[in-house]
Amino acid sequence: MEFVVITGMSGAGKSQAASILEDMGYYCVDNMPAELMPRFAEICTAAEGRYDKVALVSDIRGNVNFDGLFGAIYEIRAMGCDIRILFMEASLSTIVNRYKETRHKHPLDAGDGAVSDAVKKERELLEPLRDRADVIIDTTGCSLSALRRKIKEYFSGEESGGGLYVSVVAFGYKNGLPADADIVMDMRFLPNPYYVDELKNLTGMDEKVDRYIFSFPKAESALKKIEDLLKFLLPQYAEEGKQSLSLAFGCTGGRHRSVAVAKRVAEYIRSLGYQADCVYRELW
Are 140 and 281 in contact, with CB atoms under 8 Å apart? Predict the structure, then answer.
């Protein structure tokens, strides 16, 4: 029998993860108290295969006692069940924006509406749980389709569409590096459109910004070197059996240079016959 405990930051995508696992055939239960988990596992075991894959969401809403949760996990493992912890997280700005959009109240909101303070407090409280997690997924700038691919990779071993899948991420260093990036490239050596008045409020998705950046020979030269590197590396990763690769490009704010380069690199990767999605983290 296989168990997955879905936990992590409020607003980081635990419900979406549970829905994806449910689509994969898992029986999902939301907000399961830790003390009930071993008893629930006994019931599932006695069902003789009816519930052979189970996902349980347990988070700060249930005033998680980590000793109790870790004890429950130990008991379930002692029953002969395979149990893993999936920890969902996202950047502070991402979670704050999600709460602003939904207008939901954060579980640790003290009543003053300071969502950022609640998020920081929750992150601190959950650190021991994160340290014990088997799988950590950062949903900052992560589309639902990309999240689905990640969960399928971790919990079913399936390749999404076959072959190597590449996630190309554009990010801003001022908001930190993507937590799950395999390769990070710094684009801050390129001329910054932010200091050009007519380009400042645009992004790397706009043709004017793209044209400005790649009007400089060093930008074209850098792109060619990156493409040559990927042309060599991607078949090597695929040959070694790697199913997914996260390739991140950063600049100061994550809105101009990194976006323009990431967009072109993703197009090039697709031209080589690989699956590639582009995530513009700071444009959310």
Answer: yes
